[in-house]
Specification:
Elements lengths: L6 E12 L5 E2 L4 E2 L1 E11 L4 E6 L11 H11 L11 H11 L4 H19 L3 H4 L7 E3 L2 E2 L5 H13 L4 E5 L5 H15 L4 E5 L6 H10 L6 E3 L5 H8 L6 E3 L6 H10 L4 E5 H4 L2 H13 L4 E4 L5 H11 L7 E3 L19 E2 L2 E3 L20 E4 L1
Parallel strand pairs: 7-8, 8-9, 9-10, 10-11, 11-12, 12-13, 13-14
Antiparallel strand pairs: 1-4, 1-17, 2-3, 4-5, 6-16, 15-16
Helix pairs in contact: 2-3, 5-6, 9-11
Bound molecules: (2S,4R)-4-hydroxy-1,1-dimethylpyrrolidinium-2-carboxylate and magnesium ion (MG).
Magnesium ion binds next to loops.
Length: about 375
């Protein structure tokens, strides 16, 4: 069957995703409601493919919602009339229209794969090399909170089936962060794997002190400091394994971190790297060096959640640190027939053709802008 069909129209939508409970607190920022950008790519036969990009506020990484939409405005007109026969060709077209801005291009990359999957009658996981499982582990991410409350939530989430926890620290005194890590460990012990995430908020000195004061607790230390240079200074002085998240701004950064030997693993974000096609490359680079990683995004609804889960299903299970999706912090779904949901700390991999998620008609209101006919 030929998969050549042309892009007729692109609709861009914005939707607000308020944070349940009021605020998602990280060392770098507190966020209250996230502005997600969705692209709906319509082909000449009327099939629709969806993509999403939702920075977790403007401070987490050098991304913001209006930036995503400005970048899409540069790119979208150049995609109208293009054939959907090759995601690599369309990536080249996007690069010819705009340098960088991976987090915006990612939304299109996801939508193209959704369309091609539907056309071929296969799930996106098949286009990514093929699923190894039909259910992937997730992990629960706490917010920066009091030691006792964080430990209580951690124990609850382990009881709910999560095999991994990510404990947020930073932006306050050392005593509180150290107490939080100790209390979580006392509450959950070996029942869950633990990551301690500083979200770039610690100095090298603070990170070293925390590392020593928690040296008998097995956790991986995620993105404690801001820059790769600080991370390199830390790397050989830490007791705990070191994971990079925000520093992996593109595939070259992943490659650099691997070749410099400064990362024991990664918190990877689909949109930051430029979409699922780029994530496949990161997955394969990590696999060559047996480096574990997550398959996440910063935030977003069912579209980005489905993208993360399809990708996660293709990762060797021993290298998969889990697929984080924002479900625990947002209400509702774009698609109530086939929502992406966490059950017992795990997520079923959509089996339908494409992403397996179709936003309900009108759920995002009218497009903020449309291109094509
Ligand atoms: C836990 N996350 C995947 C969600 C927020 O965007 C922060 C992020 C992280 O690991 O830093
Ligand atoms: Mg992180």
């Amino acid at each position: 069957m030929s998969i050549v069909m042309r892009i007729n129209r692109i609709n861009v939508y914005s939707t607000q995703l308020p944070v349940k409970g009021g605020a998602y607190k990280m060392a770098s920022a507190d966020v209250h409601s996230l502005d997600s950008t969705l692209v709906e790519v319509v082909t000449e036969d009327g099939t629709t493919g969806w993509g999403e990009t939702c920075p977790v506020g403007p401070v987490y990484q050098p991304h913001h919602a209006l930036g995503a939409r400005a970048a899409l405005a540069e790119i979208a007109p150049g995609l109208i009339g293009e054939p959907l026969h090759s995601v690599r060709y369309l990536a080249k077209r996007m690069d010819e229209r705009l340098n960088g801005h991976n987090y915006a291009k990612a939304a299109f990359d996801i939508a193209f794969l959704d369309l091609i999957g539907q056309r071929l009658g296969v799930p996106v996981s098949t286009l990514l090399g093929g699923a190894l499982t039909d259910r992937v582990p997730s992990y629960y991410s706490t917010i920066v909170g009091s030691p006792d409350e964080t430990a209580r939530i951690a124990a609850d989430k382990v009881r709910a089936g999560y095999p991994r926890l990510q404990i947020k620290i930073g932006g306050r005194n050392l005593e509180k962060d150290v107490a939080t890590v100790h209390k979580v460990w006392e509450a959950v012990g070996h029942k869950a794997r633990i990551a301690v995430d500083g979200n770039r908020g610690l100095s090298v000195a603070f990170a070293l002190q925390l590392d020593r004061l928690c040296q008998n607790i097995p956790f991986v230390f995620e993105q404690p400091c801001n820059s790769m240079e600080e991370i390199s200074m830390l790397k050989r002085r830490l007791v705990h394994p070191l994971y990079l998240d925000e520093n992996t701004e593109d595939l070259n950064a992943v490659l650099r971190a691997i070749s410099l030997g400064i990362a024991d693993g990664f918190g990877l974000k689909v949109t930051r790297l430029g979409g699922l096609t780029k994530m496949m490359a990161a997955r394969d680079l990590c696999s060559i060096r047996s480096l574990p990683h997550t398959c996440d995004d910063a935030w977003g609804g069912d579209i980005i959640a489905a993208a993360c889960v399809h990708l996660a299903s293709t990762v060797e299970p021993r290298a998969l640190e889990g697929a984080w999706i924002a479900q625990e912090y947002i209400d509702g779904h774009y698609d109530n027939t086939n929502p992406v949901i966490i059950e017992n700390g795990h997520i079923a991999v959509p089996q339908q053709a494409g992403l397996g998620v179709k936003p309900e008609a009108g759920v995002f209101g009218t497009p903020v802008v449309s291109y094509g006919c």
